[in-house]
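Let us practice reading a record.
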Amino acid sequence: MNVAIIGCGYIGKKRAKFLQNNKLTVACDVDFNKAKKLASQFPDCIATDGIDSSINSSDVVLISTINSKLAPIALSAINGGKHVLIEKPGAINMLELDKIEEAIRNTKSLVRIGYNHRYHPACLKMLEIFNSGELGPIMFLRGRYGHGGRIGYDKEWRADASICGGGELIDQGVHLIDLAGIFLKEFKTIEGYMDTYFWNMDVEDNVFLNLRNSNNNTAWLHASCTEWKNMFSFEVYGKYGKLHWEGLGGSYGIEKLTYYKMLPEMGPPETITYEFPREDQSWKIEMGEFFTDISLNRTPVPGIKEAKLAMSVVEKIYRNK
Protein backbone atom coordinates (compact mmCIF):
# COMPACT_ATOMS: atom_id res chain seq x y z
CA MET A 1 0.00 0.00 0.00
CA ASN A 2 1.02 3.59 -0.60
CA VAL A 3 1.41 5.53 2.65
CA ALA A 4 1.34 9.27 3.30
CA ILE A 5 2.71 10.75 6.50
CA ILE A 6 1.26 14.13 7.40
CA GLY A 7 3.41 15.70 10.09
CA CYS A 8 7.10 14.88 9.71
CA GLY A 9 8.34 15.76 13.17
CA TYR A 10 9.56 13.42 15.90
CA ILE A 11 6.54 11.09 15.83
CA GLY A 12 6.15 11.09 12.06
CA LYS A 13 9.77 9.98 11.70
CA LYS A 14 9.17 7.17 14.19
CA ARG A 15 6.19 5.96 12.17
CA ALA A 16 8.18 6.03 8.94
CA LYS A 17 10.64 3.47 10.33
CA PHE A 18 8.01 0.74 10.60
CA LEU A 19 6.03 0.67 7.36
CA GLN A 20 6.81 -3.03 6.82
CA ASN A 21 6.38 -3.85 3.11
CA ASN A 22 4.35 -0.74 2.42
CA LYS A 23 5.71 2.27 0.56
CA LEU A 24 6.05 5.82 1.80
CA THR A 25 5.02 7.84 -1.24
CA VAL A 26 4.35 11.24 0.35
CA ALA A 27 5.90 13.12 3.25
CA CYS A 28 3.86 16.23 4.11
CA ASP A 29 4.53 19.01 6.59
CA VAL A 30 3.79 22.72 6.84
CA ASP A 31 7.56 23.04 7.29
CA PHE A 32 8.61 21.91 3.82
CA ASN A 33 12.19 21.31 4.95
CA LYS A 34 10.98 18.66 7.41
CA ALA A 35 8.99 16.97 4.67
CA LYS A 36 11.95 17.11 2.31
CA LYS A 37 14.31 15.62 4.88
CA LEU A 38 12.02 12.66 5.58
CA ALA A 39 11.21 12.09 1.91
CA SER A 40 14.91 11.95 1.03
CA GLN A 41 15.24 8.74 3.06
CA PHE A 42 12.73 6.82 0.90
CA PRO A 43 12.96 6.05 -2.83
CA ASP A 44 10.38 7.85 -4.98
CA CYS A 45 8.87 9.64 -1.98
CA ILE A 46 7.53 13.12 -2.71
CA ALA A 47 7.90 16.00 -0.24
CA THR A 48 5.03 18.47 -0.05
CA ASP A 49 3.16 20.88 2.18
CA GLY A 50 -0.13 20.07 0.44
CA ILE A 51 -2.49 18.00 2.56
CA ASP A 52 -5.11 17.27 -0.13
CA SER A 53 -2.57 15.97 -2.63
CA SER A 54 -1.01 13.81 0.08
CA ILE A 55 -4.35 12.17 0.86
CA ASN A 56 -5.36 11.69 -2.75
CA SER A 57 -2.15 9.87 -3.69
CA SER A 58 -2.22 7.33 -0.84
CA ASP A 59 -4.07 4.28 0.48
CA VAL A 60 -3.08 4.86 4.11
CA VAL A 61 -2.63 8.16 5.94
CA LEU A 62 -0.61 8.53 9.13
CA ILE A 63 -1.40 11.82 10.90
CA SER A 64 1.10 13.15 13.43
CA THR A 65 0.41 16.88 13.52
CA ILE A 66 -0.39 19.27 16.37
CA ASN A 67 -3.62 18.29 18.13
CA SER A 68 -5.87 20.94 16.59
CA LYS A 69 -5.14 19.64 13.07
CA LEU A 70 -5.63 15.91 13.80
CA ALA A 71 -9.40 15.68 13.35
CA PRO A 72 -9.79 18.01 10.32
CA ILE A 73 -7.10 16.10 8.39
CA ALA A 74 -8.53 12.75 9.51
CA LEU A 75 -11.99 13.72 8.27
CA SER A 76 -10.60 14.58 4.84
CA ALA A 77 -8.76 11.27 4.68
CA ILE A 78 -11.75 9.22 5.87
CA ASN A 79 -14.11 10.94 3.46
CA GLY A 80 -11.60 10.04 0.77
CA GLY A 81 -11.88 6.37 1.74
CA LYS A 82 -8.39 6.09 3.23
CA HIS A 83 -7.31 4.02 6.21
CA VAL A 84 -6.05 6.35 8.91
CA LEU A 85 -3.85 6.23 12.00
CA ILE A 86 -4.33 9.38 14.10
CA GLU A 87 -1.93 10.20 16.90
CA LYS A 88 -3.44 10.41 20.36
CA PRO A 89 -5.72 12.00 21.50
CA GLY A 90 -7.26 11.91 18.01
CA ALA A 91 -8.94 15.31 18.42
CA ILE A 92 -9.20 18.19 20.89
CA ASN A 93 -12.80 17.53 21.98
CA MET A 94 -15.64 15.02 21.84
CA LEU A 95 -17.47 16.85 19.06
CA GLU A 96 -14.54 16.28 16.71
CA LEU A 97 -14.45 12.58 17.62
CA ASP A 98 -18.21 12.34 17.00
CA LYS A 99 -17.68 13.73 13.49
CA ILE A 100 -14.91 11.20 12.82
CA GLU A 101 -17.14 8.38 14.08
CA GLU A 102 -19.97 9.48 11.79
CA ALA A 103 -17.64 9.71 8.79
CA ILE A 104 -16.36 6.16 9.42
CA ARG A 105 -19.93 4.81 9.21
CA ASN A 106 -20.22 6.12 5.67
CA THR A 107 -16.98 4.64 4.36
CA LYS A 108 -14.88 1.49 4.52
CA SER A 109 -12.06 3.35 6.26
CA LEU A 110 -10.39 1.78 9.26
CA VAL A 111 -9.23 4.27 11.89
CA ARG A 112 -6.76 3.57 14.69
CA ILE A 113 -5.78 6.02 17.44
CA GLY A 114 -2.07 6.06 18.26
CA TYR A 115 -2.03 5.12 21.93
CA ASN A 116 1.32 3.38 21.54
CA HIS A 117 1.83 2.77 25.27
CA ARG A 118 -0.47 -0.24 24.97
CA TYR A 119 2.28 -1.91 22.94
CA HIS A 120 5.20 -1.47 25.28
CA PRO A 121 6.49 -4.98 26.09
CA ALA A 122 5.95 -4.41 29.82
CA CYS A 123 2.31 -3.57 29.15
CA LEU A 124 1.84 -6.64 26.95
CA LYS A 125 3.37 -8.84 29.67
CA MET A 126 1.21 -7.14 32.29
CA LEU A 127 -1.92 -7.93 30.27
CA GLU A 128 -0.79 -11.52 29.73
CA ILE A 129 -0.48 -12.08 33.49
CA PHE A 130 -3.68 -10.17 34.30
CA ASN A 131 -5.74 -12.01 31.67
CA SER A 132 -4.47 -15.37 32.96
CA GLY A 133 -6.42 -14.75 36.16
CA GLU A 134 -3.35 -15.16 38.39
CA LEU A 135 -3.78 -11.69 39.84
CA GLY A 136 -7.38 -12.37 40.79
CA PRO A 137 -10.16 -9.76 40.53
CA ILE A 138 -8.87 -6.23 40.14
CA MET A 139 -9.15 -3.91 43.13
CA PHE A 140 -7.60 -0.62 41.99
CA LEU A 141 -4.73 0.84 39.98
CA ARG A 142 -2.36 3.76 40.28
CA GLY A 143 -0.52 5.62 37.55
CA ARG A 144 2.03 8.42 37.45
CA TYR A 145 3.59 9.97 34.36
CA GLY A 146 5.74 13.04 34.16
CA HIS A 147 8.58 15.02 32.69
CA GLY A 148 10.24 18.28 33.63
CA GLY A 149 9.87 20.27 30.46
CA ARG A 150 12.78 22.38 29.22
CA ILE A 151 13.76 26.01 28.87
CA GLY A 152 11.00 27.74 26.90
CA TYR A 153 8.48 24.91 27.38
CA ASP A 154 5.80 27.45 28.30
CA LYS A 155 6.19 29.03 24.85
CA GLU A 156 5.78 25.78 22.88
CA TRP A 157 2.59 24.56 21.18
CA ARG A 158 1.74 22.27 24.09
CA ALA A 159 1.29 25.38 26.25
CA ASP A 160 -1.34 26.82 23.91
CA ALA A 161 -4.86 25.48 24.59
CA SER A 162 -6.12 26.62 21.18
CA ILE A 163 -3.59 24.32 19.52
CA CYS A 164 -3.22 21.47 22.01
CA GLY A 165 -6.70 21.48 23.53
CA GLY A 166 -5.33 21.81 27.05
CA GLY A 167 -2.25 21.02 29.06
CA GLU A 168 -0.82 17.98 30.79
CA LEU A 169 -4.21 16.23 31.00
CA ILE A 170 -4.62 15.98 27.23
CA ASP A 171 -0.87 15.43 26.68
CA GLN A 172 0.51 12.69 28.95
CA GLY A 173 -2.64 12.28 31.01
CA VAL A 174 -4.62 10.63 28.22
CA HIS A 175 -2.07 7.80 28.04
CA LEU A 176 -2.76 7.00 31.70
CA ILE A 177 -6.53 7.25 31.14
CA ASP A 178 -6.32 4.95 28.12
CA LEU A 179 -4.31 2.35 30.05
CA ALA A 180 -6.73 2.55 32.99
CA GLY A 181 -9.62 1.95 30.61
CA ILE A 182 -8.14 -1.38 29.52
CA PHE A 183 -8.54 -2.69 33.08
CA LEU A 184 -11.56 -0.75 34.38
CA LYS A 185 -13.58 -0.33 31.15
CA GLU A 186 -16.03 2.59 31.36
CA PHE A 187 -15.78 5.15 34.15
CA LYS A 188 -18.90 5.79 36.22
CA THR A 189 -17.30 8.48 38.38
CA ILE A 190 -14.86 11.09 37.05
CA GLU A 191 -13.25 13.45 39.55
CA GLY A 192 -10.08 15.46 39.42
CA TYR A 193 -8.14 18.60 40.03
CA MET A 194 -5.61 20.45 37.93
CA ASP A 195 -3.42 23.47 38.47
CA THR A 196 -0.48 25.39 37.03
CA TYR A 197 2.20 25.40 39.71
CA PHE A 198 5.39 26.30 37.88
CA TRP A 199 5.17 27.10 34.18
CA ASN A 200 4.03 30.54 33.03
CA MET A 201 1.23 29.30 30.79
CA ASP A 202 -2.57 29.22 30.66
CA VAL A 203 -2.83 25.42 30.63
CA GLU A 204 -2.31 23.05 33.56
CA ASP A 205 1.11 21.61 34.37
CA ASN A 206 -0.32 19.03 36.80
CA VAL A 207 -3.53 17.00 36.88
CA PHE A 208 -4.79 14.58 39.53
CA LEU A 209 -7.57 12.11 38.66
CA ASN A 210 -9.83 9.77 40.59
CA LEU A 211 -11.76 7.51 38.19
CA ARG A 212 -14.12 4.71 39.22
CA ASN A 213 -16.07 2.11 37.29
CA SER A 214 -19.50 0.66 38.15
CA ASN A 215 -17.87 -1.75 40.65
CA ASN A 216 -16.01 1.15 42.33
CA ASN A 217 -12.63 -0.16 41.17
CA THR A 218 -10.50 2.96 41.21
CA ALA A 219 -7.81 4.50 39.02
CA TRP A 220 -5.71 7.07 40.89
CA LEU A 221 -3.70 8.99 38.28
CA HIS A 222 -1.25 11.90 38.23
CA ALA A 223 0.31 13.52 35.15
CA SER A 224 2.89 16.28 35.49
CA CYS A 225 5.33 18.43 33.57
CA THR A 226 7.02 19.48 36.81
CA GLU A 227 8.45 15.99 37.33
CA TRP A 228 12.08 17.05 37.44
CA LYS A 229 13.28 13.50 36.76
CA ASN A 230 11.26 11.91 33.95
CA MET A 231 9.23 9.00 35.28
CA PHE A 232 6.54 6.50 34.39
CA SER A 233 4.84 4.18 36.87
CA PHE A 234 1.68 2.10 36.44
CA GLU A 235 0.51 -0.34 39.11
CA VAL A 236 -2.38 -2.81 38.99
CA TYR A 237 -3.56 -4.34 42.27
CA GLY A 238 -5.47 -7.62 42.27
CA LYS A 239 -6.69 -9.64 45.23
CA TYR A 240 -3.77 -12.07 44.86
CA GLY A 241 -0.94 -9.80 43.80
CA LYS A 242 0.34 -6.64 42.20
CA LEU A 243 1.88 -5.75 38.85
CA HIS A 244 4.16 -2.71 38.66
CA TRP A 245 5.30 -1.37 35.29
CA GLU A 246 7.95 1.33 35.50
CA GLY A 247 10.14 3.03 32.93
CA LEU A 248 9.70 3.54 29.21
CA GLY A 249 13.34 3.37 28.21
CA GLY A 250 15.56 6.35 27.48
CA SER A 251 15.27 9.20 29.95
CA TYR A 252 12.40 7.40 31.67
CA GLY A 253 14.67 4.56 32.78
CA ILE A 254 14.87 0.89 31.84
CA GLU A 255 11.44 -0.52 31.16
CA LYS A 256 10.54 -3.30 33.54
CA LEU A 257 7.59 -5.14 35.04
CA THR A 258 7.62 -6.51 38.57
CA TYR A 259 5.10 -9.15 39.63
CA TYR A 260 4.48 -9.30 43.38
CA LYS A 261 2.65 -12.59 43.96
CA MET A 262 0.86 -12.99 47.29
CA LEU A 263 1.62 -16.20 49.19
CA PRO A 264 -1.06 -18.15 51.12
CA GLU A 265 0.63 -17.16 54.38
CA MET A 266 0.92 -13.55 53.10
CA GLY A 267 4.05 -11.74 54.32
CA PRO A 268 6.76 -10.78 51.76
CA PRO A 269 5.48 -11.72 48.28
CA GLU A 270 7.15 -13.91 45.71
CA THR A 271 8.74 -11.41 43.33
CA ILE A 272 9.48 -11.80 39.62
CA THR A 273 10.99 -8.96 37.58
CA TYR A 274 11.01 -8.77 33.78
CA GLU A 275 13.35 -6.23 32.18
CA PHE A 276 13.08 -4.88 28.64
CA PRO A 277 16.33 -3.01 27.95
CA ARG A 278 16.05 -2.92 24.16
CA GLU A 279 14.94 0.06 22.08
CA ASP A 280 11.25 0.98 22.49
CA GLN A 281 9.34 -1.60 20.41
CA SER A 282 5.87 -0.12 20.91
CA TRP A 283 5.88 1.87 17.66
CA LYS A 284 6.87 -1.17 15.61
CA ILE A 285 4.28 -3.42 17.23
CA GLU A 286 1.53 -0.82 16.95
CA MET A 287 2.23 -0.20 13.27
CA GLY A 288 2.20 -3.95 12.66
CA GLU A 289 -1.21 -4.16 14.33
CA PHE A 290 -2.55 -1.36 12.14
CA PHE A 291 -1.47 -3.01 8.91
CA THR A 292 -2.94 -6.29 10.19
CA ASP A 293 -6.22 -4.43 10.87
CA ILE A 294 -6.25 -3.45 7.22
CA SER A 295 -5.33 -6.87 5.83
CA LEU A 296 -7.99 -8.60 7.96
CA ASN A 297 -10.53 -5.77 7.70
CA ARG A 298 -10.93 -5.80 11.48
CA THR A 299 -11.97 -2.89 13.69
CA PRO A 300 -8.85 -1.26 15.18
CA VAL A 301 -8.42 -1.22 18.95
CA PRO A 302 -7.75 1.37 20.21
CA GLY A 303 -10.07 3.18 17.84
CA ILE A 304 -12.71 5.86 18.15
CA LYS A 305 -14.50 4.06 21.00
CA GLU A 306 -11.36 4.07 23.14
CA ALA A 307 -10.49 7.64 22.14
CA LYS A 308 -13.95 8.79 23.26
CA LEU A 309 -13.53 7.05 26.61
CA ALA A 310 -10.36 9.03 27.27
CA MET A 311 -11.87 12.25 25.91
CA SER A 312 -14.93 11.89 28.15
CA VAL A 313 -12.60 12.22 31.13
CA VAL A 314 -10.70 15.12 29.60
CA GLU A 315 -13.84 17.08 28.79
CA LYS A 316 -15.41 16.60 32.23
CA ILE A 317 -12.27 17.72 34.05
CA TYR A 318 -11.86 20.77 31.81
CA ARG A 319 -15.56 21.60 32.12
CA ASN A 320 -15.36 21.54 35.92
CA LYS A 321 -12.09 23.45 36.30
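A brief commentary: The first strand starts at residue 2 and ends at 6.
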